[in-house]
Design goal:
The longest helix has 26 residues. This protein has 131 residues and is an alpha+beta fold. The protein has a two-stranded antiparallel ribbon with strand order 1-2. Helix 1 crosses helix 2. It folds into 2 domains: 47 residues, no CATH class; 82 residues, no CATH class.
Length: 131
């Protein structure tokens, strides 16, 4: 691929088509579906990643997005954070990630509910972090 593209270390280029359906649509009128195409550029050659592996890697990325970033924004309202100077945004993101990880390790399936519950139980927070 490097002979065809002016992009360093290209191993493969792939197209992924996603079809999503609005499940909240009006049942009488039918559900609205959208088709999205995205293109993947990877340094992995065909020997390292066949089409099934490329799709699995893409899905793993979205699993991280849905399990972490969606929770960070939905539960901690991260997108509206006023923290913007120096390393503070990175530090706050790290603290949010640590909190989510601790709650998942403790068995929480709903991070928002677990956060509300722990907000009323300071001793449980101390136990969760090992104090």
């Amino acid at each position: 691929m490097n002979d065809y593209l002016d992009f360093p270390h290209v191993g493969q280029v792939a197209r992924i088509e996603r079809i999503t359906t609005d499940l909240n649509g009006d049942v009488v009128k039918g559900r609205k579906s959208t088709v999205e195409q995205c293109f993947v550029v990877t340094s992995l050659g065909q020997q390292q990643a066949d089409p099934a592996r490329l799709l699995a890697l893409n899905r793993a990325h979205w699993q991280i997005e849905n399990r972490l970033h969606h929770v960070r924004d939905g539960t901690f309202d991260e997108d509206r954070s006023q923290v913007r100077r120096a390393n503070r945004p990175h530090a706050m993101a790290s603290l949010r990630n640590a909190a989510i990880s601790l709650l998942r390790l403790a068995g929480a399936t709903n991070i928002a509910a677990a956060t509300r519950e722990l907000g009323r139980k300071p001793r449980a927070i101390a136990r969760l972090i090992g104090l």
